[in-house]
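Form 12-C: Joint structure prediction
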Amino acid sequence: MPELEFVNVRKSYQSPTGENLLALADFSLQVGGGRFVTVVGPSGCGKTTLLRMAAGLISSDSGQIRLDGAVLKSPSPKMSMVFQGIGLLPWKSVESNVALGIQLQAHRRRLGDKEVALVDATLAMVGLKGFERYYPHQLSGGMQQRVGLARALVRQPEILLMDEPFGALDAQTRTVLQDELLTLWGRVKSTVLFITHDLEEAIYLSDMVVIMSRRPGRIKQVLEVRLPRPRASYDARAEKEFARLRSTAWQSIKEEL
Amino acid sequence: MTQITNLLPGTPPKNGKSVVAAIGSNQYLVGILSVAAFFAVWQAVSMNVPPIILPAPAQVIAAFVQLTASGELVRATGQTVWPFAVGLILAFIVGTILGLLLGIFRPVARILDPYIFVFWSIPNIAWLPLFIAWFGVGQLTLIVFVFVSAVFPQLLTVESGAREADSFLVEVARSLGGTKREILHIVVLPSALPYIFAGLRIAVGRALVGIIVGQLLIVATGIGYMFQFYGETLSLAKYFAPLIVIAALAVLLNRAVNWAEQILIPWKPRAFT
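Section 2 - Result
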């Protein structure tokens, strides 16, 4: 199974007043093996920076990000990113937006029969059958994020990067999509690196929760979540173990606020 | 509040009490009434002033028919439309392509933008004597003048459109592995498309002014010349005929642009319909 490794990654930004803000300091983490790993932390702790570096969108100041041992310098076709802002192209239909996941990976305008079938299957998988020809603005926020998810999954990524994908959705839709995500993850067997500021979401979804310190972001604590799966099959959130983890995580984060 | 909502198109009148609202909800009726009112006011005013100030509607219609039958109006329209069309089409093509290039290649734009802005700021009428000196008194001068009138609004509008492509969408495309070229094609160009139409709308107006001014002042042909001739000879009834043609042309072109926009930009949610 492919591994994504952060090795002593450091990244700083220039603040508007010209100061050097250290966002991440000596951050090291390994994710892989088809595990669901979530990073939580106070806002401004560099979580999103982390993911953007993994996606190849920005580079680190020092340290390395490796994928299967090779240093990562640009967006990799083995990974897909799902954004909080979704980022669907308003002028493309649902179907075309999802197809884009393959087109930009393969650098081809036209898709072959197999790929068209893959787009169809992915759309069906996320529950968008019948919405192929809709434009994004005709869909609700939850439906739009399903398109975002389909665009990522159609690439059959080995690692799925998710940057607060449900952050902008209402509570009900968010709960529904969390369960759908777990079901999909069970089927595609990708490794997931998920970012959120919602502790319950982190615990409910993950095998491992990484808690970060305030800026400059470092790993403060790692929690293993051993609640049995599928978690939708029982009320995992009502388990004692769930409450214990949430309380531990909250104590840890509270010190960083 | 109720009065305001009643005046919005398509809002059903409350209890049928407001006559204005009841009429306002029927678009055809509104159109007919408005045209009738326009002619009534025109007629009323023309009966109270000498025909040399404002001829009656009937006189204008008669003059229009006569000028059409004699072929003069048709010929003039032809003489106006073709240099107008050539100048406008060239301005559209050049303005759109240059606008896109300048919107995308910012370092080049930073050098050229000040020049473009200065040229655009000069009232285009000031170019006319220079163009006559360069291109003589003829169709070429007219075409160049129309082109210069229309090219700057097209260029500047498209440039700002290409520049303001959503950086987040560019980032998303990049994360999916898109190359610079692919991103231009799938993100930047479609974002600029509404601006291409916005530019065209302004360019059409400017080009119309250009062709009329050009024909009026230099090349004594076409619709522009009819304005000059019938204005100077105080044949006001005839003066209105080319005016009607120009108004019709303007409306027609605007409709065409709107129509093309709706066909080519089906994804755009419209706030007011």
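Section 3 - Comments
Chain B touches chain A through 21 residues (CB under 8 Å). Chain B has two domains: 2-48, 65-264.
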